[in-house]
Amino acid sequence: MKPRLKYQQTAGTWIVVLAVFFALRMAFLFHEKHQIQQALHQTFKDSNRIQHPPKKTGFQELKSLAKAPLTYFDTLFTATPLPIAESAPKWVTHYAVNLNTCDSAELEALPKIGAKMASRIIKYRQRLGGFFSVNQLLEVKYIDSQILENPKISFSVDTLQVKRFDFATCTPSELYRHPYVGPSAAKILLAYRKAHPQIQHPWKDGNQIHGIPLEHARRISPYFR
Asked: Residue 64 is part of which domain span?
């Protein structure tokens, strides 16, 4: 046999072998693709029991994916659902309280203030005639600074709501009952008014009344018109 003919027969044999190999390979890949498609379609079919996945879970619409045509490259990647988003933190309840206009129900709703404490605050406000400062709340029995420092509560005061004395017409009993005046200071003020009937405000001009310390006078002064 001539060498050229022998070479042609050998080459032909290899071509047949390679053709059979590629045919078998393609058949195997096609069969594998078909199995993967069936598995994915079955998975999507089962997952369609969830008709409307919650938006917060981050899943895509499974129904549309089940109907979408799959390609060979789709089977090469495993789709994983997006991580479930953490639930949003609960909104912190915030209280805005005007100490001169609030009622006992508003005070009772505040953290660490019950019915008894709310009643004490209302009674002290009535005795004062109203609050000029939030810090005056500390003068109420059993109130501590933790209540004022609570980030959930914003206290405020409307000074226009404060009841002030008319120095020319206020009665002795009104002065006696006021927490900042009391009997001794009331007697001094009444004597001062009797001696100076023309004065409309005991400390309006910055004068000092003998017998009433300056710090004490500064606390009382805002409660006079």
From this structure: 13-76
